[in-house]
Amino acid sequence: MIPAQAGIGLRSQHHREVLHDKPAVAWLEIHSENFFDAGGPNRRYLDAISEHYPISLHGVGLSLGSTDPLDMEHLARLKALIARCEPGLVSEHLSWSSVAGRYMNDLLPLPYTEEALRHICLRIEQTQDYLGRQILIENLSSYVRFSHSTLAEWEFLAAVARLSGCGILLDINNIYVSAVNHDFDPYLYIQAMPSTAIREIHLAGHHDAGDCLIDNHGTPVSDKVWELYRHALRCHGVKPTLIEWDTDIPTLPVLMQEAAKAQAIMEAAHHVAA
Amino acid sequence: MSLRDLQTAFMSSVFTRDDSVIAAYLEAATMPGSLPMAIYRNNIYVALTKALEAIYPVIQRLVGDEFFKFAARHYIDAHPSRSGDLNRFGADFAEFLGTFEHAASLPYLPDVARLEWCCHQAHSAADDTPLDLPNLAAVPPEDYGRLRFRLNNASRLLRSSWPIDAIWRVNQTDYTGDQSADLAAGGVSLLLQRHENRMVLMTLSEAEWQFLAALNGRQPLEVAYANVMRADPAADLGALLHTYVGQTTLVEFFL
């Protein structure tokens, strides 16, 4: 069970320190594929760490939106990992990354059409049936929009949750990055989300490249994103919230400070609600 | 405009660097026209290159960052990623380096890459438990010749006509000694095995190689022994078995 508190994304740079010092963080999230190993040090590490912290699994490789058949071996490895570490949450993305057997290993946006909606819902249902549990689906940051889309991204994501029964992992930074890149109102996006479906929130940093924002997970969470986060909590109540940092990874204390900031905002929001 | 067509056009744009087909699908953006696909193309090549760097740090040190990126770009185009698990990307890098004309002046690179791929695989291989010694001791002596063994999942055997063991050792990040490796030292036979969290590289004599290679090929002990004797008539057969059972290279036997 992942508590409605702040957690951090665990990266290999901090493996040793986290296991040794057991820092006071409410939960940890790991990238599923990095722990698919059949044995060896990563697997032993996961066993050790999951004794001390609630674990959430975040997948980047399932390519749910692809028109290729689902990779059943990938799913089987995920299922084995779930059995081993009993995660509180399991998440993937509203994206695709492969076609005709070739993978780009990136999170690519879908067109927001009825066809894509039916397709990804079917694949999420197939995944949830196979795993025997609900998965969460995370919204992307993106640099393109497809001209034949008939739905806004927030309409599409809400429909995915309603039709497939998946939960939503709401990435506030991704909403902000896409809102700037595609000129929409991020506050309306957040308001349009179904509260009960949101089961986790992600926060991360981005890079301002001038012409657009790049979602690099390589800087502190920006003030604009913190503001949006407060808005999300006002709209939907407190949710488990994760600090993600994937490039130029800072020291563990810096990550802990970001998590403490999220925690303080959650407590303030809770206080107002009470 | 099916989803399939869109995905095919998108991928084609990424790898051919030609945006003319995907452009018809894209909404006029707030950013300059060619920028969005350039961002995706860059993210994709960077992620795949980083995956190779993580698996092939010795190759990267040997050729330098710039050349590594250049080679990675060619590899990514010639050997597409086939899995959503990036840990599976790079299996053909050794083979690729062997045919990459720009690397022809470093003929040992493919074998060093082969060794690094073996390390990568052994690192995540399933854990094994030591061989059941009481059960082995209970095998009647007349059946010894028919015994077959399985090697540890986290072990790999490899041979090279270059001293890749020395090249690998002096290019480990925690190595502080003399950085040079004598290329004239000749070929080596190697056993790589994960012990706890570390990869241990052992240089084998011809007798040791013949012994392990035969058993790894699921040949019975009598064949392994005959091969050992041809390589070194003075070899101590009992000691070989004892050594490799003791260091959990041999983990299971069959009769």
Q: Secondary-structure blueprint of this entry?
A:
The complex is a heterodimer of chains A (274) and B (255).
Chain A: E1 6-9, H1 15-21, E2 28-31, H2 41-49, E3 55-58, H3 72-85, E4 89-93, E5 96-99, E6 102-108, H4 114-131, E7 136-138, H5 153-164, E8 167-171, H6 172-182, H7 186-191, E9 198-203, E10 207-208, E11 213-214, H8 223-236, E12 241-243, H9 252-273
Parallel strand pairs in A: 1-2, 1-12, 2-3, 3-4, 4-7, 7-8, 8-9, 9-12
Antiparallel strand pairs in A: 5-6, 10-11
Chain B: H1 3-16, H2 35-55, H3 57-63, H4 65-78, H5 93-99, H6 109-124, H7 133-137, E1 148-151, E2 155-160, H8 164-170, E3 188-195, E4 198-204, H9 206-216, H10 221-231, H11 237-246, E5 250-254
Antiparallel strand pairs in B: 1-5, 2-3, 3-4
Helical content of chain B (DSSP H or I, runs of 4+)? 40-55%
Assembly annotation: heterodimer
- SSE topology string of chain A: EHEHEHEEEHEHEHHEEEHEH
Give the biggest beta sheet of chain A: 8 strands, parallel, barrel
Helix/sheet category of chain B: mainly alpha
Taking pLDDT < 50 over at least 5 consecutive residues as the criterion, the unreliable ranges of chain A are none
Question: What is the count of helical runs of chain A?
Answer: 9
Give the distance, in angstroms, between the N- and C-terminal Cα atoms of chain A. 23 Å
**How many whole angstroms does the radius of gyration of chain A measure?**
18 Å
CATH class bucket of chain A = Alpha Beta
State the main characteristics.
heterodimer; A: 274 residues; alpha/beta; TIM Barrel; 8-stranded parallel beta barrel; two-stranded antiparallel ribbon; 12 strands; 41% helix; 18% strand; globular; B: 255 residues; mainly alpha; 2 domains; 3-stranded antiparallel sheet; 48% helix; elongated
Overview in brief:
With 274 residues, chain A is an alpha/beta fold.
Task: Explain the overall architecture.
- The complex is a heterodimer of chains A (274) and B (255).
- Chain A is of the alpha/beta class and 274 residues long.
- Chain A has a single domain, classed as Divalent-metal-dependent TIM barrel enzymes (TIM Barrel).
- Helix content of chain A is 41%, strand content 18%.
- In chain A, the strands form three sheets. Chain A has an eight-stranded parallel beta barrel, surrounded by four helices.
- In chain A, helix 3 links the parallel strand 3 and strand 4 (89-93).
- Chain A starts with 5 loop residues before the first strand and ends with a helix.
- The mean pLDDT of chain A is 96.
- The radius of gyration of chain B is 24 Å and the shape is elongated.
- Chain B contains eleven helices and five strands, in the order H-H-H-H-H-H-H-E-E-H-E-E-H-H-H-E.
- Chain B folds into two domains: 1-106, no CATH class; 111-255.
- Chains A and B meet through helix 2, strand 5, strand 6 and helix 4 of A and helix 1 and helix 2 of B.
